Protein backbone atom coordinates (compact mmCIF):
# COMPACT_ATOMS: atom_id res chain seq x y z
CA UNK A 1 0.00 0.00 0.00
CA UNK A 2 1.06 3.54 -0.68
CA UNK A 3 0.96 5.85 2.33
CA UNK A 4 -0.90 9.11 1.85
CA UNK A 5 0.22 12.37 3.42
CA UNK A 6 -2.48 14.30 5.23
CA UNK A 7 -3.36 17.64 3.61
CA UNK A 8 -2.15 19.65 6.58
CA UNK A 9 1.26 17.97 6.53
CA UNK A 10 1.60 18.31 2.76
CA UNK A 11 1.05 22.06 2.89
CA UNK A 12 3.47 22.59 5.75
CA UNK A 13 6.60 21.44 3.88
CA UNK A 14 6.45 24.08 1.05
CA UNK A 15 5.70 26.78 3.61
CA UNK A 16 8.78 25.82 5.61
CA UNK A 17 10.95 25.89 2.47
CA UNK A 18 9.56 29.36 1.58
CA UNK A 19 10.32 30.61 5.07
CA UNK A 20 13.89 29.38 4.75
CA UNK A 21 14.28 31.14 1.40
CA UNK A 22 13.14 34.57 2.65
CA UNK A 23 16.26 35.46 4.70
CA UNK A 24 18.54 34.52 1.80
CA UNK A 25 16.46 36.58 -0.65
CA UNK A 26 16.48 39.55 1.76
CA UNK A 27 20.23 39.33 2.08
CA UNK A 28 20.64 39.29 -1.71
CA UNK A 29 18.38 42.35 -2.03
CA UNK A 30 20.02 44.33 0.77
CA UNK A 31 23.63 43.44 -0.08
CA UNK A 32 24.05 46.02 -2.91
CA UNK A 33 22.74 48.80 -0.66
CA UNK A 34 25.06 47.74 2.14
CA UNK A 35 28.02 47.81 -0.24
CA UNK A 36 27.00 51.26 -1.52
CA UNK A 37 26.37 52.66 1.95
CA UNK A 38 29.97 53.84 2.65
CA UNK A 39 30.19 55.68 -0.68
CA UNK A 40 26.71 57.19 -0.28
CA UNK A 41 27.49 58.27 3.27
CA UNK A 42 30.78 59.84 2.20
CA UNK A 43 29.05 61.67 -0.64
CA UNK A 44 26.30 62.94 1.66
CA UNK A 45 28.72 64.20 4.32
CA UNK A 46 31.47 65.66 2.15
CA UNK A 47 29.56 66.67 -1.01
CA UNK A 48 25.83 67.05 -0.61
CA UNK A 49 25.86 68.65 2.84
CA UNK A 50 28.48 71.34 1.99
CA UNK A 51 26.60 72.23 -1.21
CA UNK A 52 23.29 72.67 0.61
CA UNK A 53 24.90 74.43 3.58
CA UNK A 54 26.77 76.90 1.32
CA UNK A 55 23.51 77.68 -0.47
CA UNK A 56 21.85 78.52 2.85
CA UNK A 57 24.97 80.44 3.88
CA UNK A 58 24.74 82.63 0.78
CA UNK A 59 21.52 84.13 2.18
CA UNK A 60 23.18 85.18 5.45
CA UNK A 61 25.49 88.02 6.44
CA UNK A 62 27.87 88.68 9.35
CA UNK A 63 31.55 88.32 8.39
CA UNK A 64 33.61 86.28 10.80
CA UNK A 65 30.71 85.29 13.01
CA UNK A 66 27.38 83.48 13.07
CA UNK A 67 25.34 84.28 10.01
CA UNK A 68 22.13 86.28 10.16
CA UNK A 69 19.44 85.82 7.56
CA UNK A 70 19.28 88.77 5.19
CA UNK A 71 17.64 87.38 2.08
CA UNK A 72 19.25 88.42 -1.21
CA UNK A 73 21.60 91.03 0.29
CA UNK A 74 24.74 89.19 -0.82
CA UNK A 75 23.44 88.83 -4.37
CA UNK A 76 22.49 92.52 -4.53
CA UNK A 77 25.97 93.31 -3.27
CA UNK A 78 27.44 91.32 -6.16
CA UNK A 79 25.71 93.56 -8.69
CA UNK A 80 27.26 96.68 -7.12
CA UNK A 81 30.72 95.26 -6.44
CA UNK A 82 33.23 96.67 -8.97
CA UNK A 83 35.92 94.19 -7.90
CA UNK A 84 33.64 91.26 -8.72
CA UNK A 85 33.02 92.66 -12.20
CA UNK A 86 36.77 93.21 -12.62
CA UNK A 87 37.42 89.57 -11.72
CA UNK A 88 34.66 88.46 -14.08
CA UNK A 89 36.06 90.56 -16.93
CA UNK A 90 39.59 89.22 -16.36
CA UNK A 91 38.29 85.66 -16.39
CA UNK A 92 36.28 86.30 -19.55
CA UNK A 93 39.22 87.87 -21.39
CA UNK A 94 41.51 84.98 -20.56
CA UNK A 95 38.78 82.54 -21.56
CA UNK A 96 38.24 84.15 -24.97
CA UNK A 97 41.97 84.11 -25.75
CA UNK A 98 43.15 80.92 -24.10
CA UNK A 99 40.50 78.33 -24.99
CA UNK A 100 40.56 78.83 -28.81
CA UNK A 101 44.37 79.09 -28.81
CA UNK A 102 44.84 75.96 -26.70
CA UNK A 103 42.30 73.84 -28.58
CA UNK A 104 43.63 74.99 -31.96
CA UNK A 105 47.18 74.00 -31.01
CA UNK A 106 45.91 70.73 -29.57
CA UNK A 107 44.13 69.88 -32.81
CA UNK A 108 47.24 70.69 -34.86
CA UNK A 109 49.36 68.56 -32.54
CA UNK A 110 46.90 65.66 -32.80
CA UNK A 111 46.87 65.88 -36.60
CA UNK A 112 50.67 65.83 -36.66
CA UNK A 113 50.89 62.90 -34.26
CA UNK A 114 48.31 60.94 -36.24
CA UNK A 115 50.21 61.06 -39.52
CA UNK A 116 52.42 58.19 -40.60
CA UNK A 117 55.14 60.63 -41.70
CA UNK A 118 56.23 61.30 -38.10
CA UNK A 119 58.86 58.93 -36.77
CA UNK A 120 58.92 57.80 -33.12
CA UNK A 121 55.31 58.85 -32.69
CA UNK A 122 55.10 57.20 -29.27
CA UNK A 123 57.94 59.35 -27.96
CA UNK A 124 56.37 62.51 -29.36
CA UNK A 125 53.00 61.65 -27.87
CA UNK A 126 54.58 61.14 -24.48
CA UNK A 127 56.40 64.46 -24.77
CA UNK A 128 53.23 66.32 -25.73
CA UNK A 129 51.29 64.85 -22.81
CA UNK A 130 54.00 65.32 -20.15
CA UNK A 131 53.03 68.91 -19.16
CA UNK A 132 49.55 67.67 -18.22
CA UNK A 133 50.94 65.48 -15.43
CA UNK A 134 52.88 68.37 -13.88
CA UNK A 135 51.31 69.74 -10.71
CA UNK A 136 49.58 73.11 -11.05
CA UNK A 137 51.52 74.69 -8.19
CA UNK A 138 54.80 73.36 -9.56
CA UNK A 139 53.88 74.75 -12.98
CA UNK A 140 53.16 78.18 -11.53
CA UNK A 141 56.42 78.25 -9.57
CA UNK A 142 58.42 77.12 -12.61
CA UNK A 143 56.97 79.82 -14.86
CA UNK A 144 57.39 82.49 -12.19
CA UNK A 145 61.14 81.87 -12.50
CA UNK A 146 61.10 81.60 -16.29
CA UNK A 147 59.18 84.87 -16.72
CA UNK A 148 61.22 87.07 -14.40
CA UNK A 149 61.96 90.46 -15.89
CA UNK A 150 65.67 90.69 -15.15
CA UNK A 151 66.99 87.14 -14.99
CA UNK A 152 64.19 85.09 -16.49
CA UNK A 153 65.05 82.55 -19.18
CA UNK A 154 62.33 83.83 -21.51
CA UNK A 155 63.68 87.39 -21.52
CA UNK A 156 67.22 86.11 -22.00
CA UNK A 157 66.00 84.27 -25.07
CA UNK A 158 64.22 87.35 -26.40
CA UNK A 159 67.32 89.49 -25.95
CA UNK A 160 69.45 86.84 -27.64
CA UNK A 161 67.40 87.21 -30.84
CA UNK A 162 67.41 91.02 -30.64
CA UNK A 163 63.99 91.59 -29.07
CA UNK A 164 63.41 93.76 -25.98
CA UNK A 165 62.75 92.20 -22.61
CA UNK A 166 59.13 92.07 -21.45
CA UNK A 167 57.87 92.77 -17.93
CA UNK A 168 55.76 89.63 -17.97
CA UNK A 169 54.51 89.75 -14.41
CA UNK A 170 54.60 93.49 -13.79
CA UNK A 171 52.35 94.85 -16.56
CA UNK A 172 48.60 94.09 -16.54
CA UNK A 173 48.39 93.00 -20.18
CA UNK A 174 51.49 90.82 -20.11
CA UNK A 175 50.48 89.35 -16.74
CA UNK A 176 47.24 88.10 -18.29
CA UNK A 177 49.16 86.79 -21.27
CA UNK A 178 51.50 84.98 -18.88
CA UNK A 179 48.54 83.17 -17.33
CA UNK A 180 47.30 82.30 -20.82
CA UNK A 181 50.77 80.99 -21.71
CA UNK A 182 50.90 78.78 -18.62
CA UNK A 183 47.42 77.37 -19.24
CA UNK A 184 48.19 76.70 -22.88
CA UNK A 185 51.44 74.92 -22.05
CA UNK A 186 49.81 72.81 -19.35
CA UNK A 187 46.60 71.68 -21.07
CA UNK A 188 47.38 71.56 -24.81
CA UNK A 189 48.83 68.06 -24.61
CA UNK A 190 45.88 66.80 -22.58
CA UNK A 191 43.41 67.93 -25.24
CA UNK A 192 45.71 66.73 -28.03
CA UNK A 193 45.52 63.18 -26.68
CA UNK A 194 41.71 63.40 -26.64
CA UNK A 195 41.70 64.64 -30.24
CA UNK A 196 44.17 61.93 -31.22
CA UNK A 197 41.84 59.26 -29.86
CA UNK A 198 39.00 60.79 -31.87
CA UNK A 199 41.09 60.91 -35.05
CA UNK A 200 42.04 57.25 -34.73
CA UNK A 201 38.38 56.28 -34.52
CA UNK A 202 37.50 57.92 -37.88
CA UNK A 203 37.06 55.17 -40.51
CA UNK A 204 39.75 55.23 -43.18
CA UNK A 205 37.09 54.47 -45.79
CA UNK A 206 35.74 58.01 -45.44
CA UNK A 207 39.10 59.52 -46.37
CA UNK A 208 39.52 57.08 -49.23
CA UNK A 209 36.08 57.93 -50.60
CA UNK A 210 36.85 61.65 -50.34
CA UNK A 211 40.14 61.14 -52.21
CA UNK A 212 38.32 59.23 -54.94
CA UNK A 213 35.97 62.20 -55.28
CA UNK A 214 38.97 64.47 -55.75
CA UNK A 215 39.00 66.15 -52.32
CA UNK A 216 42.31 67.67 -51.30
CA UNK A 217 43.80 67.71 -47.77
CA UNK A 218 41.93 70.86 -46.70
CA UNK A 219 38.65 69.61 -48.11
CA UNK A 220 39.09 66.25 -46.40
CA UNK A 221 39.75 68.04 -43.13
CA UNK A 222 36.62 70.21 -43.32
CA UNK A 223 34.31 67.55 -44.82
CA UNK A 224 35.49 64.43 -42.99
CA UNK A 225 37.67 65.19 -39.97
CA UNK A 226 35.73 68.07 -38.42
CA UNK A 227 32.27 66.41 -38.64
CA UNK A 228 33.67 63.17 -37.24
CA UNK A 229 35.33 65.04 -34.36
CA UNK A 230 32.32 67.21 -33.51
CA UNK A 231 31.37 65.28 -30.34
CA UNK A 232 35.00 65.38 -29.19
CA UNK A 233 35.23 69.09 -30.01
CA UNK A 234 32.07 69.74 -28.00
CA UNK A 235 33.48 67.83 -25.05
CA UNK A 236 36.78 69.73 -25.01
CA UNK A 237 35.18 73.14 -25.56
CA UNK A 238 32.74 72.69 -22.68
CA UNK A 239 35.37 71.17 -20.39
CA UNK A 240 37.92 73.89 -21.16
CA UNK A 241 35.35 76.65 -20.67
CA UNK A 242 34.32 75.30 -17.28
CA UNK A 243 37.94 74.89 -16.22
CA UNK A 244 38.91 78.42 -17.25
CA UNK A 245 35.91 79.96 -15.50
CA UNK A 246 37.06 78.21 -12.31
CA UNK A 247 40.67 79.33 -12.80
CA UNK A 248 42.54 79.68 -9.52
CA UNK A 249 45.85 77.85 -9.11
CA UNK A 250 47.90 79.34 -11.92
CA UNK A 251 47.20 83.06 -11.35
CA UNK A 252 47.33 82.61 -7.57
CA UNK A 253 50.83 81.13 -7.70
CA UNK A 254 52.10 83.13 -10.67
CA UNK A 255 50.86 86.66 -9.97
CA UNK A 256 48.72 86.57 -6.82
CA UNK A 257 45.98 88.36 -8.75
CA UNK A 258 48.14 91.37 -9.62
CA UNK A 259 49.36 93.67 -10.82
CA UNK A 260 46.48 96.01 -9.91
CA UNK A 261 44.00 93.09 -9.93
CA UNK A 262 44.77 92.46 -13.62
CA UNK A 263 44.79 88.67 -13.13
CA UNK A 264 42.21 88.47 -10.36
CA UNK A 265 39.73 85.72 -11.26
CA UNK A 266 36.30 84.95 -9.84
CA UNK A 267 37.60 81.93 -7.95
CA UNK A 268 40.43 83.98 -6.45
CA UNK A 269 37.96 86.68 -5.38
CA UNK A 270 35.81 83.96 -3.80
CA UNK A 271 38.86 82.67 -1.93
CA UNK A 272 39.79 86.13 -0.69
CA UNK A 273 36.34 86.83 0.71
CA UNK A 274 36.00 83.43 2.31
CA UNK A 275 39.46 82.78 3.76
CA UNK A 276 41.06 86.21 4.03
CA UNK A 277 38.09 88.33 5.14
CA UNK A 278 36.01 85.40 6.51
CA UNK A 279 32.90 86.70 4.78
CA UNK A 280 31.57 83.22 4.08
CA UNK A 281 28.08 84.36 3.15
CA UNK A 282 29.34 86.63 0.40
CA UNK A 283 31.87 84.01 -0.76
CA UNK A 284 29.03 81.49 -1.04
CA UNK A 285 27.03 83.96 -3.11
CA UNK A 286 30.02 84.36 -5.45
CA UNK A 287 30.29 80.57 -5.71
CA UNK A 288 26.66 80.20 -6.75
CA UNK A 289 26.89 83.10 -9.18
CA UNK A 290 29.87 81.32 -10.77
CA UNK A 291 27.93 78.04 -10.80
CA UNK A 292 25.07 79.75 -12.62
CA UNK A 293 27.46 81.27 -15.16
CA UNK A 294 29.16 77.92 -15.80
CA UNK A 295 25.80 76.19 -16.21
CA UNK A 296 24.46 78.79 -18.65
CA UNK A 297 27.59 78.84 -20.81
CA UNK A 298 27.87 75.06 -20.81
CA UNK A 299 24.22 74.62 -21.78
CA UNK A 300 24.53 77.28 -24.51
CA UNK A 301 27.60 75.61 -26.00
CA UNK A 302 25.98 72.19 -25.96
CA UNK A 303 22.80 73.59 -27.51
CA UNK A 304 24.66 75.47 -30.24
CA UNK A 305 27.04 72.66 -31.21
CA UNK A 306 24.30 70.07 -30.79
CA UNK A 307 22.09 71.91 -33.27
CA UNK A 308 24.96 72.02 -35.75
CA UNK A 309 25.43 68.29 -35.28
CA UNK A 310 21.80 67.66 -36.17
Structure description:
There is one protein chain. This protein is mainly α and 310 residues long. It is 75% helix and 1% strand. The protein is built from twelve helices and two strands. The protein has a two-stranded antiparallel ribbon. A hairpin with a 6-residue loop joins β1 and β2. The longest helix has 51 residues, at 7-57. It is globular and about 70 Å long. The model has no long low-confidence stretch (mean pLDDT 85).
Strand order of the largest sheet: 1-2
Query: What is the total tally of β strands?
Result: 2
Q: Helices and strands: which structural class?
A: mainly alpha
**Considering DSSP H and I runs of 4 or more, what fraction of the residues is helical?**
over 70%
What characterizes the major β-sheet? 2 strands, antiparallel
What is the N-to-C order of secondary-structure elements (H for helix, E for strand)? HEEHHHHHHHHHHH
How would you sum up the global shape?
A: globular
Termini separation: 80 Å
What does the radius of gyration come to?
A: 29 Å
- Average pLDDT: 85
Question: Number of helical runs?
Answer: 12
Weakly predicted, low-confidence segments: none
The portion of residues forming beta strands comes to under 5%
